Amino acid sequence: MASGEEDGAVEEKETNNKKKTKSAVAIAWLTFYNIAMTAGWLVLAIAMARFYLQKGTHKGLYRSIARTLKFFQTFALLEIGHCAFGLVRTSVIVTGVQVCSRIFMVWFITHSIRQIQNEESVILFLVVWTVTEITRYSFYTFHLLHHLPYFIKWARYNLFIIMYPLGVAGELMTIYAALPYVRKSGMYSMRLPNKYNVSFDYYYFLIIVMLSYIPLFPQLYLHMLRQRRRVLHGEVIVEKDE
Amino acid sequence: MKHYEVEILDAKTKDKLCFLDKVEPNATIGEIKSMFHKSHPQWYPARQSIRLDPKGKSLKDEDVLQNLPVGTTATFYFRDLGAQISWVTVFLTEYAGPLVIYLMFYFRVPFIYAPKYDFTTSKHWVVHLACMCHSFHYVKRLLETLFVHRFSHGTMPLRNIFKNCTYYWGFAAWMAYYINHPLYTPPMYGEQQVKLALIIFLFCQIGNFSIHIALRNLRPPGSKTRKIPYPTKNPFTWIFLLVSCPNYTYELGSWLGFTLMTQCLPVAFFTLVGFIQMTVWAKGKHRSYLKEFRDYPPLRSPILPFIL
Asked: Which intervals of the chain form a coiled coil (chain A) (predicted)?
């Protein structure tokens, strides 16, 4: 019985050590991930600025950065895994919804419907996404390194106030512009009769997606506003004590 | 006999909501809830959560005052659970919907399909069979709600009825639309496929019913006791040897049968979503069985023998 108890104690120590090493690996990975994503979106921002400065027009801009955008935006799917495996303390569902909506815009709208790639609304949401992501990923990076410059924190909790609505506007206008082309081509749609006894109309699906922004956007926006108040409110209290 | 004094504080604000003096030591939480209800008529007992600790677990209605770790002046914390609705009401509403909605599509009521199809019937016999199976399933559920099930809780939050009805009614409409559509395509392997599907469906319906009866018999009328379910003389209950929640296993089987019978992707989707939800419930139930009973049979899995 004595040896049994000893084994139990040894086992516990090992799992504690395992837990500690897991955290160090997790932090290393997350730091690498956030630095890489910050760099990626910076590259995108610079490429976009360069194109516009050189060509003087936004036509063809999307095509020039499409591969880089798809790579880094798709890579963000990993963030769902981070939440699911407890590396990051955010809700899987919230992250899932945000990442999936981005994936949807990139792959199922701008990639698939080539006729709208030169719309101004595409540039609008690309600029918004770029600014937002650079701020967000650098915020996470500095936070992990325990050295958070105030202006990054300020940017994260204030820029969204105009970025969110502008981004939503860009996305909605892009989907709206895509509608006639979807209708004409009948893309991603399935009609009856077929052996699966199901039908899908991408045109009406897109209209439903646009309508879903109405309940979803205010919730996300209010959530960010509440977080902002909590962060700023905390700061105020500290100042008072000093 | 020493009487107790009971004070009830709001769990969040710690405000004193109610003070009861001369409470019998053998009074139950249920009785205290009724007394609290008298001074606060808007909080009927079903929506009261009474606890010893503001962040702790709710006390049960059956708990007796003198058996709780409190002094002669007991302090309880109250949380409002929000408007409540009875489980029976929710079940009846959420099951009556699919029954009615499916039949509307089956009879091709106007404004669903093109006008030339109004009130016509499908030429495929599998469509008639599917309607009978679907209707039978929901009639069975309604009757079980009224006569078989013994519920642990009387009520659930009111918002659940909207959530649940959206789920059941929405999926029923989606499935029924395609199965009863004039352009419906019967199953690929014809009669063989439909016959096999029907056998699976009926087998699982009987199985599911057998489990519900077995579970009911575990619990005497009006009681909320929990016991380990075991196989009975009914062969359909022998699955208890391998599974904690065979009612969900059989339910999955029924819907797999219905999917095979109709060869309809929305039905497959409904089956999948239901399976995910039932697995979550089964795992939870399995865990509480393990926690509550030291001698719980180790061979059992939550929902799928040996797998899940």
From this structure: none
Q: B11, B48 in Cβ contact below 8 A?
A: no
The verdict on a CB contact (< 8 Å) between A198 and B266 is: yes
Q: What is the pTM of this model?
A: 0.80
Q: Do B119 and B262 fall within a single domain?
A: yes
Asked, for residue A2, whether it belongs to a domain, the answer is no
Name, in order, each residue with C-beta under 8 angstroms of B143's C-beta and a sequence gap of 6 or more: none
* Rg, C-alpha atoms of chain B: 24
Residue pair B239/B204 in contact (Cβ under 8 Å)? The answer is no
Range of the domain at B54: 4-82
**ipTM of this predicted structure:** 0.78
Q: Does A192 touch chain B (CB under 8 A)?
A: yes
CB B188 within 8 Å of CB A195: yes
Active site residue A181: no
Model confidence at B1, pLDDT cuts 50, 70, 90, reads low
Q: What share of chain B is helix, strand, coil (3-state, %, to 5)?
A: 55, 10, 35
The structural domain count of chain A equals: 1
B264 touches chain A (CB under 8 A): yes
- If you count residue pairs, one on A and one on B, with CB atoms under 8 Å apart, how many are there? 29
Same domain, residue pair B278 and B145: yes
Report if residue B299 sits inside a domain.
Answer: no
Taking contacts as CB-CB distances below 8 angstroms, the residues of chain B near A198 are 178, 264-266
Q: Which helix (H) or strand (E) holds A230?
A: helix A202-241
In a domain, A16, yes or no: no
Q: Do B165 and B272 fall within a single domain?
A: yes
Please check whether residue A15 lies inside any domain of the structure. no
Tell me which of A164, A181, A188, A213 is the catalytic residue: A164
B308 within a domain of the structure (yes/no)? no
- In chain B, the residue whose alpha carbon lies closest to the alpha carbon of A191 is B183
Q: Say if B262 is an interface residue toward chain A (CB within 8 Å).
A: yes
What mean pLDDT is reported for chain A?
A: 87
* Dihedral sign from CA coordinates of B56, B60, B63, B66: positive
B136 Cα to chain A: minimum distance (Å): 22
Do B178 and B193 lie in one domain? The reply is: yes
> Do A193 and B264 make contact, defined as CB atoms within 8 angstroms?
no
A8 pLDDT higher than 50 = no
Q: Looking at the complex, report in whole angstroms how far the Cα of residue A191 sits from the nearest Cα belonging to chain B.
A: 10
